[in-house]
Write a structure and sequence with these properties.
By secondary structure, this protein is an all-alpha fold. The chain is built from 13 helices and no strands. Belongs to the EamA transporter family. This is DMT family transporter.
Length: 304
Amino acid sequence: MKTQSSATDAGPIAVTASRPERRTFGTALAALGVAAFSLTFPATAWGLEGFGPWTLVTVRSALAALVAGGALLALKVRPPERRHLRGLAVVALGVVLGFPTLTTLALRTSTTAHAAVVVGLLPLTTAVCSALRTGHRPSRRFWLAAVAGAVAVLTFTVVQSGGALTAADGYLFAALLVCAAGYTEGGRLAREMPGWQVIGWALVLCLPLTLPAAALALSQEPYRVTAHGIAGLLWVALGSQFLGLVVWYRGMAAIGVPRASQLQLAQPLLTLVWSALLLGEHFTAAAPLTAVAVLVCIAVTQRS
């Protein structure tokens, strides 16, 4: 396959774009991805109203894979080169399978507001994975701001959990690790092929597993067709699992993984808004205050 690049330069993944217009475009794409992801937890909560957790996870991945596979076939995209398969496997395990499964299990007992604030740690874990993977070292100010956001989230989690972490928190922290690995590897691959192909091939690689698993889950778990259940399933499958990741990986390729990952500090606050509007959730002042605290870190990290 001829190498296709969604970015014109071949510099290290974590180096930001040199041209202001490209940086602005990449930031806008990454921000669209964050907006799509901010709806994931409320949509998952809706989906759990009609489907069991394993049904929701497997059907969303299978449905997204069928859409992505159809797009790849329609555009006659050649299969990825062998050297890309290992990276695509990391994306598949982290973003397609790991994160949706772990967060869905967590949301059985955790509120979306609590989960959203915990996932505020994702920028830090992604930046760490990026630094380890690429050898790039962001500035000290970058790390101080990222750690400050992480401390705020950890403090919130411990206080809200009564001084001890719960099983749901364990699922969420594990989800952060696998998702950060998938984001980092996907951002690297998006320098060599269009971002939509990165997530598209990752989804297709999982289809031999997710399709029979979806059939098995549907036969074993009770489900009921509701408007919320269907809407939630469709969003997490098409909005979060495919379209959101398309623009997210493209944005990361343009502005670098650490800079793009810090935009996700805005995601908890957005999810809190959706949780209140769509789910009618009530939360203490600690949730929005923590979300605002980590938002402050965005300005610092974006300038470092």
